[in-house]
Amino acid sequence: MDFFKQKFNSEKLQEGQIFLINKPMGWTSFQVVNKIRWHLKNTTGLKKLKVGHAGTLDPLATGLLLICTGKKTKIISTLQDSEKEYTGTFKLGATTPSYDLETEIDKTFNIEHITPELIENTTKQFLGRIQQKPPLFSALKKDGKRLYEYARSGKAIDIAKRNVTIFKFKITKIELPNLCFLIRCSKGTYIRSLAYDFGKAISSGAHLSALQRTQSGGYELKDAYTMESVLNNNSHINIKSK
């Protein structure tokens, strides 16, 4: 059925359903939630409907976003606790304050010393339980303020490191200065921070230039539908009811 034409059952929506969406670049996770909520309420006539997402994706990232409705919003924290899988690209030889393309390059480095062997040995350093510092340009809060608010004001603050687990870290293609990767990790892992730390470990600097979430728990990107096709009124949307 077409997403914008199907007749949603208001009772089932209140009981809870999970929608799989491929978040496009440039959209915030909140914008996707708002668009889905608006349509579901408009279609069913519901005045109130809880809708939320299980795991924020940065605006520059794409990929699997789980949208929960009704009583399924109660399991959002459980869904967020699940392992995630990502593909994307690190660009060696340069860093940015945000660790990705949100901000301009601030430092450049030589990459002539980098070899496939060095890359492979460096990836091994990040397997298992590691500590990483969240990016200053992030929505995490410290003393009631978002970290990006401190970053934009130019105020220096101390950010505590935290433990995360990298279950799989594979470089899938080397086209210097770009490294394509596949990473499977625990909740709370910042791939941007991993890019920065990887660059530091390999003595070349690095930043995240592309990111896509391909899996979240038992859900896969291949089963999701793009927001573009939803907005064009000519797609189906996958609904899970675990």
What does this structure look like?
- The chain is an alpha+beta fold.
- It folds into two domains: 10-81 and 218-240, Pseudouridine synthase, CATH 3.30.2350; 84-216, Pseudouridine synthase.
- It is 24% helix and 33% strand.
- The protein contains seven helices and 15 strands.
- The chain has helices at residues 10-15, 29-44, 76-80, 116-124, 147-153, 191-201, 227-231, and strands at residues 18-23, 51-53, 62-69, 84-92, 94-95, 107-108, 128-132, 141-142, 145-146, 162-175, 178-185, 206-216, 219-220, 225-226, 238-240.
- The strands form three sheets. Strands 1, 2, 3, 4, 7, 10, 11, 12, 13, 14 and 15 form an eleven-stranded mixed β-sheet that branches. It has a two-stranded antiparallel sheet with strand order 5-6.
- A hairpin with a 2-residue loop joins β12 and β13.
- It is elongated.
- Mean pLDDT is 86; it is low at 1-5.
Strands, total number? 15
- Poorly predicted runs: 1-5
Corresponding CATH architecture of the largest domain: 2-Layer Sandwich
Question: Which class best fits the helix and strand makeup?
Answer: alpha+beta
Number of discrete domains:
2
* CATH domain class name of the largest domain: Alpha Beta
Q: What is the end-to-end distance? A: 20 Å
Summarize the structure.
This protein is of the alpha+beta class and 242 residues long. The protein has helices at 10-15, 29-44, 76-80, 116-124, 147-153, 191-201, 227-231; strands at 18-23, 51-53, 62-69, 84-92, 94-95, 107-108, 128-132, 141-142, 145-146, 162-175, 178-185, 206-216, 219-220, 225-226, 238-240.
